[in-house]
Amino acid sequence: MSKLTDVPKRILIGQALRSDKLGETLLPKRIALPVFASDPLSSVAYAPGEVLLVLSIAGVSAYHFSPWIAVAVVVLMFTVVASYRQNVRAYPSGGGDYEVATTNLGPKAGLTVASALLVDYVLTVAVSISSGVENLGSAIPFVVEHKLLCAVGAIVLLTLMNLRGVKESGKLFAIPTYLFVAGVFVMILWGAFRGLVLGDTMHAPTSDYEVRPEHQGLAGFALVFLLLRAFSSGCAALTGVEAISNGVPAFRKPKSKNAATTLAAMGLLAVTMFCGIIALAMATDVKMAENPAKDLVRDGTPVGAGFVQDPVISQVAAAVFGDGTFFFVVLAAATALVLFLAANTAYNGFPLLGSILAQDRYLPRQLHTRGDRLAFSNGIVLLAGAAILLVWIYGADSTRLIQLYIVGVFVAFTLSQTGMVRHWNRHLRTERDQAKRRHMVRSRAINAFGAFFTGLVLVVVLATKFSHGAWVALLGMVIFFGTMTAIRKHYDRVAEEIAASDEPSDETIRPSRVHSIVLVSKLHRPTLRALAYAKLVRSDQLEALSINVDPDETKALREDWERRGIDIPLKILDSPYREVTRPVIDYVKTLRKDRPRDVISVYIPEYVVGHWYEHLLHNQSALRLKGRLLFTPGVMVTSVPYQLESSEAAKVRARRRANWTAPGSVRRGPVERRHREPRDAHPREPHGKG
Amino acid sequence: MSKLTDVPKRILIGQALRSDKLGETLLPKRIALPVFASDPLSSVAYAPGEVLLVLSIAGVSAYHFSPWIAVAVVVLMFTVVASYRQNVRAYPSGGGDYEVATTNLGPKAGLTVASALLVDYVLTVAVSISSGVENLGSAIPFVVEHKLLCAVGAIVLLTLMNLRGVKESGKLFAIPTYLFVAGVFVMILWGAFRGLVLGDTMHAPTSDYEVRPEHQGLAGFALVFLLLRAFSSGCAALTGVEAISNGVPAFRKPKSKNAATTLAAMGLLAVTMFCGIIALAMATDVKMAENPAKDLVRDGTPVGAGFVQDPVISQVAAAVFGDGTFFFVVLAAATALVLFLAANTAYNGFPLLGSILAQDRYLPRQLHTRGDRLAFSNGIVLLAGAAILLVWIYGADSTRLIQLYIVGVFVAFTLSQTGMVRHWNRHLRTERDQAKRRHMVRSRAINAFGAFFTGLVLVVVLATKFSHGAWVALLGMVIFFGTMTAIRKHYDRVAEEIAASDEPSDETIRPSRVHSIVLVSKLHRPTLRALAYAKLVRSDQLEALSINVDPDETKALREDWERRGIDIPLKILDSPYREVTRPVIDYVKTLRKDRPRDVISVYIPEYVVGHWYEHLLHNQSALRLKGRLLFTPGVMVTSVPYQLESSEAAKVRARRRANWTAPGSVRRGPVERRHREPRDAHPREPHGKG
Predict the structure, then answer these.
(1) Which structural domain, as residue segments, surrounds residue B518?
(2) How does it sit in the membrane (chains A, B) (predicted)?
(3) Do B169 and B244 belong together in one domain?
């Protein structure tokens, strides 16, 4: 093909494929890491603080347990990462926790995981935004003074962006995430250099505060319980680790291997940052209290309600870089930005999970269609509404919201890992290759340990946090579970009702005749078109029907009809109360009663308009009538559209809408098969002349 | 026919005619009076007070002008009544002010009247409810302490009642209206008896108060202006007089004569009550002030903001019967009730006028259908919303609301009477019978005087009240006028666009072939039905089309298709992004491009469900697709409904809705022609075999 003819074609195809293009871009590891890791990495902005906060209940002396808790979190992180590396290898098609649990443990386990994840998406938004506002507030006081307003504003902004359909691009994620990671590492290294090499003593803004312990001299079971609670809070660092397992198809080849490597890199980064921040917090004497107003004491007096307890990461940054310095502000901004990105991942993950659930008929079918804007919008609004509600109730306080957060993640972790154990068991039953068997046994051991450990953590989280708010998350899960079960039941019932039996039934016995009726009010172009179309489709009987609501108009219609010599009989029904619907319905019923095996085909000329308000002015009677006719058995209703000039505007809008790409496409990866030419199951043949 | 077979038939017919029955009950005068007069009669509850209130600006000494103002109001009332007696005679079909103005003065005048009346309906609700609450409050202090809340609550209650569709029955109106009239007459007679015969001195609760004049010793033009303002306020007694002229068809025969008699009776009752109350107010030394808190003085000190100024009628009742006595409470209750009924008349009048305006295409066509519940509901909600807004803004203060009220009525009066003069002029041009001519000349004189007098009052009202609030009413009229003009323009533009020319056009040239496509996802009953129907309607080409969103489902469909041996070719289109709409649209466009004169007929199997939430679970993709297909020229879309079991519930609801009677039927009267058997314009003949 010559170059000259190629250009217009390329432009055309480029145009036509535009909406598909995004999905076809596979992610290199350096881009995949920020795309998937903004959520887990951003949690180091709040997780270390939560650990200190809980420990402070037993007084500052309890802070010396924090390295041990950090170690426990690190071990857990390695366990979870190792476990999910098995997942991504076993399910290269992108087996998320829902799929793994459903396949291996049955639909109820799968639905439980799905409910947990849906709740978690809501909490990701609520927690990340609240924490982002707190971090931004450490640099810009206005933000923290109007915390709730800013948090709600940020959610609304994210929602609008996602409703408009911002494309999720790798770069958008890469820059803030790497900036954040680099910032934290610079801080850790510079802090270590100042402390260990220069011998500087660094002081956090709260270093000269005292913490009044709520419980003096805790020991025995009470102390263990407190340490477990601190550990539970630290587990917030693990949220979002599972996201990669959904996104394997988005990686470059070898997909599974690259995904596993990215997972490992992410785990390593997360634990390093987590431990570094804890270490710096200890070195700079950060003080955190659960109720700072009461328990944080300066010069013998509590700081009171006006005090704002800045996040650990910003206190450490103030100690290392100096409060208000360039580096301090950059890190605060990067932290806030990466937290907002983390919130944004929920906007992508929610409809993705929704589409998978819709495929299994737990949610309305239309969610299954990728890029269905309306369905996507509904999901986004639901997500945003629930997140705003939580932020409102909990005053955008990340500490209180985190109590709700971790339950869902660990439900998903535990069930997914248990499912993986079953997966390996099943494969071991048939696998004969000894090398592969050894590999599988090793994987099973990892997953079994993962299941055990995450299950243990789940019990710990439930035990230590239930009354602190975890019950809210459980309630949310129950509601999602119940709704989805009900939807599935409805679909199953309908499927049974409409299933075609093999015996001849109403539907397979061919009805005898078709009686066509064209509804007519005036002889204008839409009516003439409907009459022409109805004649073209050959039926056994064809008549035009007009309802006499105004004698003058009816007379004019009749005269026009005869003048034009239209060869279709015109029937006129009187309607003393100027109703349109009832006389038509009654007439159709009479026809059906006279000849029960006839099918009545009703043609309705319809205006196609371009603006919503024009709908109020047109077609209302037609719509009402159509709605009623559909309830009448043996009737079909044909709309014969007439495109008014104003409909051009709506056509353009509809086309633009069709080319819209749903956010979340990057992480979903491309679909397997490519677009092919339409193909026929039977050879084409003219039909219907018989 | 035997009696036995008659019974079931009568039951059936009785059932079938139920919704028509109401309209067929013609009103005797004794019922027609309360139905139409609750609005004008109830205004004597506030009109006398408004007169005193305005006069008080010049001090109590100005009260001695009140009899003269009463006389002016009486003369005006007789003029208006006499004028409308000509209307009901000239337009026995129920020529309301809108019709009279449109017919005789042209559409712009008609639309002005319509706008004025629509604004007036809103104000009738706002003023009557506010005044009703004030009257009820004179007996039950709680009501007046929570005036705004009670007023809004009453409007909401009325709205809900009307949305549910309470039937307007003559009795409902008769009892409170006659109770009110009787109560006022007993009060006037008993007061006259006590004062004139027994020689009692009766004291109103405010008799020993003083009024501090805002302007001492007004004279000359300022005094005349004040008197004119007092007169304008008194004109509130005339609102609603025009209602009978819409309702002539609801009267028993001789309709016009009975309507005229009822009008006269109503006028007589109204002026007697109005004058009686003014006289009693003077005799019992009622004091009213425009700003009671400041200008009403007791023992030298203003009464202050906590003082509640009771309506004149209740102050007079307290003086005549004694405060809190049985008669006092009964009269207060009857007054409140008749005022609520007056507000209710607006709920009936608003959709009635809307239906007439819709017929002239100033409002959406579907409003024209009598008893169209949805359209009716929209009108009711609009009316209630506007009334609540006004009540809210003006603090449910009837005095402030009345400033807005009278403009609209007098615009309607003046234009209607001017129109009547033209009406007689036109008839006099052709009438030769001398007796009839004399009668017409006399009628013309009455209407001319009516037009002159009401026009003068309109000027007075505008001059004295413009800055007090009449501008709000004018603004409302302008908004209604503008909206309705825009709607009419839109309809006219569309009518021009779709008008069929006599030359052959796209619509009259018969398209060449029809290519039918049945959309298929699975082979269940709805699909089988759609396939059977599509085959029955013979088209030139018929094929089934399925979109491959899931390879397994598509494979199952293909196998099922072959197993059942369906003789329709099945085409399968791939959709890599699981979209349904786009591949279908693209395919249809390709077909159209290949054979531009083909018509594409798309059959969509649809589920008919019974609950709104089921709509979320079904047909969404079908609806979306249908919406997009309608924008494609040369396409028709056929819905083949499959009634799910749950649709039974909706069918029952729809039937109930169809039997619903719109409030306002009583005053509208029955329509002229009766329900006839369907008749054919052409003899019936089988058609479409050719």
Answers:
(1) 513-668
(2) Multi-pass membrane protein
(3) yes
Say whether residue A558 is in contact with chain B using an 8 A CB cutoff: yes
The answer on A219 and A79 residing in a single domain is: yes
| Contacts B510 to A, Cβ<8 Å | 532, 535-536
A386-429 pLDDT, tens digit each: 999 999 999 888 888 988 888 998 999 999 999 999 999 999 99
Q: Name which of A374, A541, A642 is nearest B687 (Cβ-Cβ).
A: A541
More confident residue, A497 or B673: A497
d(CA A155, CA A383): 10
A474 and A533 inside one domain: no
Query: Does residue A483 sit at the B interface (CB-CB below 8 Å)?
Result: no
| Closest-CA distance of chain B to residue A636, Å | 5
Which residues of chain B neighbour A679 with C-beta distances below 8 Å?
A: 571-572
For residue B164, the distance in angstroms to the closest alpha carbon of chain A comes to 19
B528: domain CATH number is 3.40.50
Contact A617 B490 (CB under 8 A): yes
Report the CATH number at residue B156: 1.20.1740.10
Q: Does B612 touch chain A (CB under 8 A)?
A: no
How many angstroms separate the CA atoms of A340 and A274, rounded? 19
Q: Which residues of B touch A681 (CB under 8 A)?
A: 558, 561, 569-572
Is residue B676 domain-resident? Answer: no
Chosen domain end from A491, A526, A561: A491
Alpha helices, H only, B577-683? 581-594, 612-617, 620-629, 647-658, 665-668
Residue B11, domain member (yes or no): no
Q: Where are the alpha helices (DSSP H) in A25-96?
A: 29-42, 47-55, 66-90
Predicted local confidence at residue A497, as pLDDT: 85
- Which pLDDT tens digit goes with each residue over A638-664? 999 888 887 777 777 766 666 655 555
Q: Is A12 on the interface with B (CB under 8 A)?
A: no
Domain total in chain B: 2
Closest of A144, A169, A173 to residue A33, by C-alpha: A173
Instruction: Count CB pairs under 8 A between chains A and B.
Output: 341
Considering CB atoms only, which of B569, B587, B684 is closest to A569?
B684
Cα A239 to Cα A234, A337, B670: the distances in Å are 10, 18, 71
DSSP letters, B455-485, are HHHHHHHHHHHIIIIIHHHHHHHHHHHHHHH
Determine the 3-state secondary structure of B25 from DSSP: coil
Q: Does B494 touch chain A (CB under 8 A)?
A: yes
The Cα A158–Cα A160 span in angstroms is 6
| Any A CB within 8 A of B655 CB | no
pLDDT of residue A304: 81
- What pLDDT is attached to residue A505? 58
Note the pLDDT tens digit of each residue in A335-382: 999 999 899 888 878 877 888 888 888 988 777 665 556 667 778 888
- Do A656 and A544 belong to one domain? yes
A375 to chain B: nearest residue by CA? B620
- Among A314, A282, A293, smallest CA distance to A205 is for A314
Q: Which of residues 562-581 of A touch B (CB under 8 A)?
A: 568-574, 576-581
Do A318 and A434 belong to one domain? yes
Task: Please tell me whether residues A210 and A282 are part of one structural domain.
Answer: yes
**Mind listing the pLDDT tens digit for each residue in B85-134?**
998 888 887 668 888 999 899 999 999 999 999 999 999 999 999 999 99
Residue B461: inside a domain, yes or no?
Answer: yes
Any domain includes A363: yes
Give the ipTM: 0.73
Instruction: Look up residue A383 and give its two tokens.
Output: 């997500």
pLDDT confidence tier of residue A676, bands split at 50, 70 and 90 = very low
- CB distance from B489 to chain A under 8 Å? no
Domain co-membership, A439 together with A322? yes
Token pair of B85 as six digits: 């007696």
Taking contacts as CB-CB distances below 8 angstroms, the residues of chain B near A499 are 524-525
**Residues A529 and A646 occupy one common structural domain:** yes
**Closest chain A residue to the Cα of B689, Cα to Cα:** A540
Tokens encoding B554: 């598509």
A368/B532 Cβ within 8 A: no
Task: Provide the shortest C-alpha distance from residue B510 to chain A (in Å).
Answer: 6
